[in-house]
Amino acid sequence: MTNLITTGVLSVLIGVALIYLVRARRHGVKCVGCPHSGDCGKGGMEGGCGCRVAKRQE
Prior knowledge:
Shape: elongated
Low-confidence stretches: none
C-alpha cells in the first residue's frame, strides 16, 4: 500500500513539472530555469539562450 501511495505522489509531481515546462515553452520562454529567460531574444540581452549577462561577483 505504501508503494502505491509513493508511486502516486511521484507521478503527480512529475506530471505537474511537465505541465509547467510545456506551458512555459508555449509562452515563449527559451530557458525555463534561467532568471533572465523573459529578456532573452527581446533585445534586452545579447544572444539567445546563452545569456551573456554579467554574473555577480561573490
